[in-house]
Amino acid sequence: MGRGAGSTALGLFQILPVFLCISPSVTSPCNILKCNSEYLAATSGSHHPGTEEVPEFCTALRAYAHCTRSTARTCRGDLAYHSAVHGIDDLMVQHNCSKDGPTSQPRLRTLPPGDSQERSDSPEICHYEKSFHKHSATPNYTHCGLFGDPHLRTFTDSFQTCKVQGAWPLIDNNYLNVQVTNTPVLPGSTATATSKLTIIFKSFQECVDQKVYQAEMDELPAAFADGSKNGGDKHGANSLKITEKVSGQHIEIQAKYIGTTIVVRQVGRYLTFAVRMPEEVVNAVEDRDNQGLYLCLRGCPLNQQIDVQTFRSPQATEGRTRRKGPVLPAAPEAFTYETATAKCREKLPVEDLYFQSCVFDLLTTGDVNFMLAAYYAFEDVKMLHSNKEKLHLYERTRDLSAGNAAPSRRPRALLALWAALLCLSQWWSVLL
């Protein structure tokens, strides 16, 4: 950074604490302090970027600008906010930074001297886990899975049974997109299952080119759509790999540059999906406040969730077997509640939500392959979930999430009122 740019940045961060100290608006919802601290953390040690470091510096500036825009409404009267906005504009002009472009990437730390890398031809930045110092905090990992009729376990361990017929986004962040297509299991049935899966790995620095993986019923490839099995021609291409575990039935994708493992299976005619991903990558989105629905993070919309309680009693099962229509006569086998529970216990001895999902699917489809889908989904949880105490879930969650509606607006309203009164009292004391 030139002398002018360095003095601008230094001046900006010398006056910000002054404004924060004298302005009562600090107690308002204005989050400019959070934006400032994130920018300082991203650029610490890089106040004078060389030519080769300018792209990273511009990325940090764009992230800073995005953060300020997201809090513009609540910071309208905050002097520190306006100082930050002007400082960002000055620095972007001085370094010819485009306003369009990436705004974030996983925090990849430099390995201490002497630490070996997995491969000599793989750049350090292309191995997410090895980029953490031995004595620093390890990343937090989350899990999401989709299987059966379909049943969804979100990154926050919410468990739901959903309709979600047609195409739905499962994951959507800065590094990859996953979309599933669910189709009716039988003509005229409300039961659906995943018949198509598309995964897009976005191009990432010197590690990988953009790669697309597609699977459909009776077609589970062991390669990307272009025929390759790794990340392409870039120097760190081997940080993205596909491995075939069982031909036509089970593949695993390792995306080491983002610390992510994906498991795709075909069980019977339909697909299952499971992923292990660092929280940092999960939350790497351009505009989280205005982000659209994606199932692994926000769960299924309330109008797409199914109440399975009515399927858990023998009386309800008898009522369904007496129904006339195209669904049950076309089913491979008609299960009662007793025979369904007995069948599911063969593979799932613990009566948790995976067991209950198995019973539900046998009652609605009559297809024993759905029992295997629940079994393999739980096997994937055992392999991928970082918290072994949370493998079994016992209570279904229909909580209103951020993607559907706020769980309760009254506490938030009371909190906002309290903050407003506190702010007014501080202004009043200043005036007196």
UniProtKB/TrEMBL annotation:
For this protein, the record's Pfam families field holds:
RGM_C, RGM_N
As recorded in UniProt, coiled-coil segments are: none
InterPro entries, alphabetically?
A: RGM, RGM_C, RGM_N
Q: Where is the signal peptide?
A: 1-27
The residues covered by the Repulsive guidance molecule N-terminal domain are: 30-99
GO process terms (BP): BMP signaling pathway; positive regulation of macromolecule metabolic process; regulation of primary metabolic process
Q: How does it sit in the membrane?
A: Lipid-anchor; GPI-anchor
| Keywords tagged on the record | Autocatalytic cleavage, Cell membrane, Disulfide bond, Glycoprotein, GPI-anchor, Lipoprotein, Membrane, Signal
Domain Repulsive guidance molecule C-terminal spans what residues?
Answer: 140-386
By its UniProt entry, which Gene3D superfamilies does this protein fall under? Mog1/PsbP, alpha/beta/alpha sandwich
Q: What is its main location?
A: membrane
Report if keyword Nucleotide-binding is assigned. Answer: no
Write out the ranges of the annotated region (Disordered). 99-122
GO MF annotation list: coreceptor activity
Sorted alphabetically, the Gene Ontology cellular component annotations on this record are: plasma membrane; side of membrane
Localization, per the record, is: Cell membrane
Q: Which family does the entry's similarity section mention?
A: Belongs to the repulsive guidance molecule (RGM) family.
Task: Provide the protein name.
Answer: Repulsive guidance molecule BMP co-receptor a
The organism named in the record is: Nothoprocta perdicaria (Chilean tinamou)
